[in-house]
Specification:
homodimer, about 350 residues, alpha+beta, 60s Ribosomal Protein L30, Chain: A, Phosphoribosyl-aminoimidazole Synthetase, Chain A, domain 2, 2 domains, seven-stranded mixed sheet, 10 helices, 13 strands, about 30% helix, kinase (chains A, B), transferase (chains A, B), metal-binding (chains A, B), nucleotide-binding (chains A, B)
Chain lengths: ~350, ~350
C-alpha cells in the first residue's frame, strides 16, 4: 500500500498581500540579477539603469523603467469607467511612476488581455485614450501584445530618461526638510465614492423602469475626472528642472498619503509629522465626504489614486519654487517621532501605513 | 416619446484577431508618438531606440524592447504546466524576441496577475523559474507589479541592447539568400500534443480509480521539455557575433515556420521557397506525429512555440558559420514566386500564412 503523500503547502496569497509578494519576487530574483549598469532595482517607483557609451563626455544618463497593470474587477469596473478613460489611465499611472523618479517618459509597451465581450470598437476606444495620454506626456507606444483574457487587463511598461544626478528616490529625506505635495489629495477617492453611489442607484433600478435613474454626478465633475482620468505631474518635474531645484526624496501618491509618508520614512530612518490643518482638500472632496457621511481626511490619508507627488525638500530649496505649485503638509523629523498626524489641538496620533489596497 | 438611440457598433474582437488588433493599435498610436530616437516601433519582434549621449564616440548603441503575456486558459493550462516551467517560459519567450533582433537581453519587468487559487508557494515557484531563466540568459528583473486576477497572467517586458549596425530586422532578405533555421522545428507542438493526450487520460480516470492513470510521456521527454521550457537561442546570437556574421533578416519561430516565412517575405517584397525534404525534424516529433496520426510537417509549419531562429543570409556569409549550428531549409526567391513549399517530387504548393493562434 502506498503512503499518502504530504499535502503541498498552500498559503493563500492574501496572507502576504501585494507588497509581500513583490518583496518575495525581489528576494527570489536578486541573486539571479546581472546587476551591471543597474543603479536601483525593485523597491522604488521605477528601476534605474545607466545607458550611453562608457567614456562619453557629459553627465551620466540613466533610463528608468516601471510596470503597472490595471485589471477589470480589481482596479476598475466597466459599468462606470469609459474605455477611453481607461486607456488614458493605464498610461498616466505609469508616467506618474516615472515622474516620481524626477524623470521624463519616453517609450511604452502595452500588453492587452481582451475578453470576448469587448468589441473592436471598445479596443479602439482604449487605444484612443492611450494615444491622448502619450501625446500629453510626450511618449510613444513602441510595443504591443494582444491576447484573449477572461477579464480586461492592461499591462503597461514605461521607460523614462534622466541625468543620473537628477534622479530622486524614496530615500533621502533629512530631519528638518519640509514635507510637501502637489495639487490636492483625496479627490480621486471622493470621485470613486460618487461613481459607486451612481452605480448603486443604477443597479437599484433593476431593469424594471424604462428610464433607469442616471447616476447623480452633479457638482462632482472634478472629483470624478480625478478618478477616471488622473494627471501625472510631469508639469512639476519640468518646473523643478527649470528652477534648478531637486527634492531630497520623492514618491507619487497612489496609495494615500499615510502609506506614502511611511515609504518616505525609509523603514523608520526618519520620521514625518503631517499637520491635519494643512491637508490640501478640494471643495468637492469635502462635499462628497459630507454627502456620504465619511471624513475628508480619510479620503486624503487612505484613499489613494491621486497621482500627485509627495516630496521632501530643505526650506531654502523650496523657497525657489512658486508657492502656488505645492503645499507644505508637514515636516521630516527625527526617527523616534515616527509617522504621525498632528491634530489642530496639538495632539499627535500615529499614522498607520495602511492605504489603498487592490489585493 | 424619445427615439431609441442607435445601438453601439459591436464587432467581436475575434473578427480581426491578434495581428489585426495590434495593427489597429499601431495605427491609433502612430500619430501620438514622440518618435525622437526611435529606430523601429511596433511591427518587428521588438522595438528599437537609440540610447547614449549624442556626440559620444564609438558605434551608436540602441536598446530593444518587447512585451509578451502568458494568460491561463489561453497560453497554458495549469493542469499540466509546472509553475516553475511557466516562470521560465515567460522570461524565455521575451528573450527570444530580443535575440530575434540580434540583441542581448539586459533588464525585465514583470506584471503578475494572481488568482485566489494560487498559493504563495506557487508564486515562489514562478519566481524560481524566472530567476533560473534570468541567470541563464544574463538579464535582471528590475521591476514588478502584482495584482489579483481571475486567471493567472504573466506580462513580461524585456529590454535588450545592441550596436545599432548589428540589429537585424524582419525586412532585409534578398533573392538568392539562403533561408535557414537553428535547431529543429515542430517538437514544441509535438510536446503539446503529448501533454494534451496525457491530460485526456487523466481526465478519463474521472476520480473513480484510486490510482488515476499517469500521462504517458515515455519516449517524449525532449518534446515535452521543448514545450514547457523553451530555450531562447542567444547562443546563436553570440556565435554570429564571434564569427562576424550578420543575417540579412531574422525572426523567431513562435507561430510556426509558414507564418514566419510570410513575415520575412515582407508583404510580398521577396518570395521564399521551403524544401519539404530539408525540414529539421527531431525523431520524437516524427514519432509523436505517428502516434497521434498527424503529419510531422504540420507540426513544423503550423505548430509554433519552437522559439528557434529563422534567418536569411547570403551563401558566402553562411559559409563562415559552423555547419552544425543551423539548417538550410530553402531559399529567398523573387516576389512573384510567393511563399511556397517544394515537395520531394519537385512540385510547389503555396504556403498559407496561417500559424499558431491563441486569439
Amino acid at each position: 500500500m502506498s503512503e499518502i503523500p504530504d499535502a503541498q503547502p498552500f498559503t493563500p496569497v492574501s496572507d502576504v498581500g501585494e507588497f509581500g509578494l513583490i518583496d518575495k519576487m525581489k528576494a527570489a530574483l536578486a541573486d539571479a540579477a546581472d546587476a551591471r549598469d543597474l543603479v536601483a532595482g525593485i523597491g522604488d517607483d521605477a528601476a534605474v539603469y545607466r545607458v550611453g557609451a562608457a567614456g562619453s563626455d557629459g553627465p551620466s544618463r540613466v533610463h528608468v523603467i516601471t510596470t503597472d497593470a490595471l485589471v477589470e474587477g480589481v482596479h476598475f469596473d466597466r459599468t462606470y469607467v469609459p474605455l477611453r478613460a481607461l486607456g488614458w489611465k493605464a498610461i498616466a499611472v505609469n508616467v506618474s511612476d516615472v515622474a516620481a523618479m524626477n524623470a521624463r517618459p519616453r517609450f511604452a509597451t502595452v500588453a492587452l488581455g481582451l475578453p470576448n465581450n469587448l468589441s473592436v470598437e471598445g479596443a479602439e476606444a482604449l487605444y484612443t485614450g492611450m494615444a491622448q495620454a502619450c501625446e500629453r506626456y510626450g511618449l510613444a507606444v513602441v510595443g504591443g501584445d494582444v491576447t484573449a483574457s477572461a477579464r480586461l487587463t492592461l499591462s503597461v511598461t514605461v521607460v523614462g530618461e534622466a541625468e543620473e544626478r537628477a534622479v530622486v528616490y524614496r530615500r533621502g529625506a533629512q530631519p528638518g526638510d519640509l514635507l510637501c505635495v502637489t495639487g490636492d489629495l483625496g479627490s480621486a477617492a471622493a470621485g470613486l465614492r460618487v461613481l459607486l453611489a451612481g452605480k448603486d442607484r443604477m443597479t437599484a433600478g433593476d431593469g424594471a423602469a424604462d428610464d433607469p435613474p442616471q447616476p447623480d454626478l452633479t457638482g462632482f465633475a472634478y472629483a470624478v475626472e480625478r478618478q477616471l482620468m488622473p494627471q501625472a505631474r510631469l508639469d512639476r518635474i519640468e518646473a523643478w528642472a527649470e528652477a534648478g531645484v531637486r527634492p531630497s526624496s520623492l514618491i507619487d501618491v497612489s496609495d494615500g498619503l499615510a502609506s506614502e509618508a511611511h515609504h518616505l520614512s525609509q523603514a523608520g530612518t526618519v520620521g514625518a509629522v503631517i499637520d491635519a490643518g494643512l491637508l490640501p482638500v478640494h471643495v468637492q472632496t469635502a462635499l462628497a465626504a459630507q454627502r456620504f457621511d465619511e471624513r475628508a481626511e480619510a479620503f486624503v490619508l487612505y484613499g489613494g489614486e491621486d497621482y500627485e507627488l509627495l516630496f521632501t525638500i530643505p526650506e531654502a530649496e523650496a523657497s525657489k519654487l512658486s508657492p502656488d505649485t505645492y503645499a507644505v503638509v508637514g515636516q521630516v523629523v527625527e526617527p523616534k517621532e515616527g509617522v504621525a498626524l498632528r491634530l489642530p489641538d496639538g495632539n499627535r496620533v500615529p499614522l498607520e501605513a495602511a492605504g489603498f489596497r487592490h489585493v
